[in-house]
Amino acid sequence: MLPEDKVKALFIRFLNNDCTEEETAMLMREFAGEQNGDILKSLVRARLEHMEGEEDHSAAVEAVYERITQHIHQESSSPAPRYLLWRRIAVAASIGLLLGPGSLWFLHRQKTSHPIVAIKQSTTDFSPGREKAVLTLADGSTIALDSAGVGLLAQQGNTSVTSLKNGQLIYAAAGKQQEVLFNNIATPKGGSFQVTLSDGTKVWLNAASAIRFPTVFTGQQREVEVKGEVYFEVAQHASMPFMVKSGNAMVKVLGTQFNVNAYPDETEMKITLLAGKVAVSTTADQPTHILTPGQQAEIKPDNNNIYIKEGVDLGDIMAWKDNLFSFNNADIKTIMRQLSRWYNIEVEYEGTPPSREFSGKISRNTNASNVISILEQSNIHFRMGDGKIVVTP
To answer: What is the per-residue pLDDT for 48?
Structure first.
């Protein structure tokens, strides 16, 4: 058991994102112990009083204490990957407090904090995205996958295309196929989807994304082409490497997990490796870069240079797949681009956009008005209606 002053010091370092992983683990162990309940309550109370003034926070302290301790105990026994475990504990314990829809904790880079507030409902609102995509078959015919039902959807040569109950699509090849047929799956704004290719590779598509692929892989390599944001869990096939093409970039893998973010309205393409090993190259005569887990390759659209970023927060990168928005020192334009794609809305700006940066998480299962209400606590103002959100002075 640590001395009380040590626990308090670690807690403050934790809120300021200054704790190492070892220090975070030490702090969580302390809070998990029954003997430190009073210390945790006093820290929560001090934080609430600092944010909201000298008023009685007894009920709020008890509610927050219960949620934090419950969350810590649940996560301590979870088999979730380590990087996700610590991100979730961090959100719960750093007075992000309530992790239900519409809850978020924002921190300015200047350390100015914005507490969670009650969500005010708007008469004009936009619903969150859902599983929705369009499948284009080899003959050009299309199938709306969100209304296609369960069962066999199409036969592409010797490959059957089947929709499952959980909303994903399965390609199953039977025997050899002479002719190479290509299919395309595209999600609109406000849509996401999952597909398993004929080799067993699993693919997740974020909103406004697409993948073009052969219904069965033949030859010496497996090659697909993507747009938008797509996450891969590639089935191993050592004699047939897996190739992902997006714009001027090519990713070569044998068996691995990685994310490609190639939206045209982003400042660069980002290829992030979670597990295994990939080789990233461009169409120009540039060196090939080998990524290891936790590395990210950034490619600017106006040149073919590849920049390698170390120590990427994989929890932030993969938040969309876990149905979360995750902002890490993000400016308002970055945030609004994500909202635009997920809620299928247009975004406009009146005057100069605020230059502040924000960090925080929020469920993508909540309506747009909930996210907007939280942002408004940072003195950023919005007007909603007519299929768009206007950021106002």
So the answer is: 57
Work out the angle at residue 124's Cα, subtended by the Cα atoms of residues 373 and 380, and round it to the nearest 5 degrees. Answer: 30
Contact between 61 and 98 under an 8 Å Cβ cutoff? The reply is no
Note whether 237 and 287 are within 8 A (CB): no
In terms of pLDDT, which residue wins out, 4 or 158?
Answer: 158
Do 259 and 169 lie in a common domain?
A: yes
Under DSSP, is residue 93 helix (H, G, I), strand (E, B) or coil?
helix
Alpha helices in the chain (DSSP H): 4-15, 21-32, 37-52, 58-76, 82-91, 314-317, 332-343, 368-376
Answer for the pair 114, 376: CB distance below 8 angstroms, yes or no.
Answer: no
For residue range 212-247, list pLDDT tens digits in order: 999 999 889 999 999 999 999 999 988 899 999 999
Q: What is the mean pLDDT of residues 43-57?
A: 57
Taking Cα atoms as reference points, which of 202, 55, 212 lies closest to residue 138?
212
Query: What element of type H or E holds 331?
Result: strand 324-331
> What is the count of structural domains for the chain?
3
CB burial of 93-117 (b: ≥16 within 10 Å; e: otherwise) equals: bbbbbebeebbbbbbeeeeebbebe
Q: How many CA atoms lie within 13 A of 391 on its CB side?
A: 23
Crossing angle of helices 21-32 and 82-91, in 10° steps, is 60
Domain with 15 in it: 4-99
Same domain membership, residue 337 and residue 267: no
> Any idea what DSSP says for residue 285?
S
- Quick one: DSSP state of residue 321? G
What is the distance between the terminal CA atoms of the chain, rounded to a whole angstrom? 50
Residues 291 and 147 in one domain: yes
Are 197 and 203 in contact by the 8 Å Cβ rule? The answer is yes
In a domain, 154, yes or no: yes
